[in-house]
Structure formats: structure tokens, C-alpha cells
């Protein structure tokens, strides 16, 4: 008895060993016209086995590419499409450039620094106070997510002053939002009263 683990590894396992054997037989057919008909029959079987592929654009092109891959590019026929070459499959994409920037406090992130730069330029008034309060709550949550043990409202206050070069500050009586449920103070924390 021969186990699949002892047999040759399948090139495209999703098509199974039967399709692979059909392709191997097709490669060995000496008559080119018969080989062409055999390849077209294999494509028809592959289409039947993989009906979801029909929903994709250029599904026929993909099937012929897969047939070429299954044959190890040994199948000498007239392909209706230009098949993908092995070097194109093995080609690695170029590495993407990642915008590296110096961030003063990494746990707050780059956008917090940008926002605090804008906050520093705002004139004094209720809008600036409200935005400072919103940023303080956001920074508290960011610090909590980064390291729960390091989360300290005093540190958030100091970091707001540091970011804005002392031009903005969190008022002493300010109540920070709870980080455990994410609700602002005075909004009930989302709890519903039960009816009796």
C-alpha cells in the first residue's frame, strides 16, 4: 500500500492527485493536436472542480496559468493566453517605505503630537479649553492602553504642558474620563436602571 506522504508532492494540492496525473499524461502525449485537446479537457474539469473561480475576472486566464504550473511548464501547447512565468511568481515585491519620524512620547503617537502643535497655536478661550480636555482624555486612554501600571493623570497633565511648552494646561478641577468603560464623567457610564 502506498501512502500519499510517500508519493510525489502535489504542485497545487487544491486540484488533487487525479488532475496532477491527468496533466502528467497530457505532457507525455506525442501528438500536438491530441495534447491540445487533452489540455482543453483538463481545463474543463478544473472549471467544474472550482466553480467559484468563475466569479473572478479573467478566471480562464488563471486556469491556464495553473495548468502551466501543474505541468512544471513542460506542456507544449498553444495557450490562449500568455501564461505567467516562474520568475514572475518568485519575484518579491519591493519593500515599502515606512515614514519614520521622531516621536517624543511613543505611547501617544504621531497624530497626538501634530494635534498638540495645533492646540498650542489656538488662542485662549472655551474652544481651546474643550480641545485640551478632549486631548487629555485621549492621552489618558493611550497611556492606559500602552501600560496600565504607568497610567497616571498627573503624568497626562505634565505631558500636556510639555507638548504645548506650558501654553496649555489641564485645569485642576478637571475630571478625567474613566478608562475602564470609556464614558465621560457625569454621563452615567451607560448603566440602565432596572424596572421593577
What does this structure look like?
By secondary structure, the chain is mainly alpha-helical. It has 2 domains: 13-90, no CATH class; 110-187, no CATH class. It is built from 7 helices and no strands. The protein has helices at 16-27, 32-49, 59-70, 86-90, 110-121, 126-146, 153-163. α1 packs antiparallel against α2 (32-49) and α2 crosses α3 (59-70). The longest helix is centred in the last third of the chain and has 21 residues, at 126-146. The radius of gyration is 32 Å and the shape is rod-shaped. The model is unreliable at 182-190 (pLDDT under 50).
- Helical fraction equals 40-55%
SSE pattern: HHHHHHH
**If you average the pLDDT, what whole number results?**
82
Largest sheet, strands/sense/barrel: none
Radius of gyration: 32 Å
How many separate domains? 2
How many alpha or pi helices?
7
Q: From the helix content, strand content and strand pairing, which structural class follows?
A: mainly alpha
What topology does this entry show?
Blueprint lengths: L15 H12 L4 H18 L9 H12 L15 H5 L19 H12 L4 H21 L6 H11 L33
Put the structure in a nutshell.
This protein has 196 residues and is mainly alpha-helical. 46% of the residues lie in helices and 0% in strands. It folds into two domains: 13-90, no CATH class; 110-187, no CATH class.
Task: Give the key terms.
196 residues; mainly alpha; 2 domains; 7 helices; rod-shaped
Amino acid at each position: 500500500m502506498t501512502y500519499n506522504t510517500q508519493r510525489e508532492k502535489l504542485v497545487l494540492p487544491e486540484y488533487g492527485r487525479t488532475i496532477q496525473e491527468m496533466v502528467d499524461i497530457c505532457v507525455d502525449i506525442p501528438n500536438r493536436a491530441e495534447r491540445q485537446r487533452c489540455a482543453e479537457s483538463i481545463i474543463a474539469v478544473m472549471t467544474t472542480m472550482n466553480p467559484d473561480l468563475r466569479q473572478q475576472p479573467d478566471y480562464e486566464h488563471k486556469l491556464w496559468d495553473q495548468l502551466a504550473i501543474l505541468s512544471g511548464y513542460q506542456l507544449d501547447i498553444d495557450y490562449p493566453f500568455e501564461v505567467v512565468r516562474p520568475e514572475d511568481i518568485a519575484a518579491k515585491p519591493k519593500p515599502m517605505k515606512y515614514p519614520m519620524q521622531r516621536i517624543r512620547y511613543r505611547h501617544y503617537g504621531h497624530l497626538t503630537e501634530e494635534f498638540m502643535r495645533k492646540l498650542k497655536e489656538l488662542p485662549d478661550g472655551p474652544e481651546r479649553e474643550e480641545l485640551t480636555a478632549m486631548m487629555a482624555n485621549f492621552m489618558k486612554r493611550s497611556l492606559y492602553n500602552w501600560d496600565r501600571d504607568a497610567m497616571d493623570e498627573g503624568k497626562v497633565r505634565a505631558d500636556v504642558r510639555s507638548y504645548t511648552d506650558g501654553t496649555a494646561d489641564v485645569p485642576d478641577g478637571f475630571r478625567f474620563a474613566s478608562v475602564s468603560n470609556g464614558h465621560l464623567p457625569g454621563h452615567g457610564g451607560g448603566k440602565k436602571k432596572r424596572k421593577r
